[in-house]
Specification:
By secondary structure, the chain is an all-alpha fold. It has a domain at 60-197: Tetracycline Repressor, domain 2 (Orthogonal Bundle). Helices cover 74% and strands 0% of the residues. Helix 1 crosses helix 3 (61-85), helix 3 crosses helix 4 (91-99) and helix 8 (152-175) packs antiparallel against helix 9 (179-197). The termini are far apart.
Amino acid sequence: MIGIIYHMRYRAEHKQETRRRIVRAASRRFRSRGGEGITIAGLMRDLRLTHGGFYRHFASKQELYAEAIGAALRESETYLSQAAEASPGNELRALISTYLSVAHCRNAAQGCLYAALASEIGRRPRAVRAAFEAALAEHTRNMARFLPGKSAEERERNSVLLFSGMAGALNVARAVNDEGKRQRILDLSREFYIKAFCR
């Protein structure tokens, strides 16, 4: 009996871990290639899983996309929070500098979902947009603690303004071929947002 219970628990834990692997890999591929840039068959093959096995975890690619959104925002939030908290007294400056860095610009797969997919998500089904909105609201609240403001509402508003602006700047920087122009976009944006929000 103990062996049966252990086996059932192992199977459940294994299934959950496999699902997490799929979501983590998909969230990075969606950010680097866009939603149409990956196939389920290719994703599962690269993870050494069967194509048919995908449907034991997700009903569709859109369901995976919606879950991958949350995973992507949690990953980028952790990355930014660590950068901020590593600079006591200068958290916001560190956060802005990290976000508008060349390293972040070059690494879309592990970077900010806003910059990578916001325009694409606007054309996705309602369920995907709802997942994005929920994750964005949580991210905004969590990051607001680093922003200036006399109230929680004002800090959240500033958080929305800052991250929307920085995502746009990062997106434009990624779109240009010239390294010098890319660097200038990042430098000017970083200087502007530090002056605007760091007191």
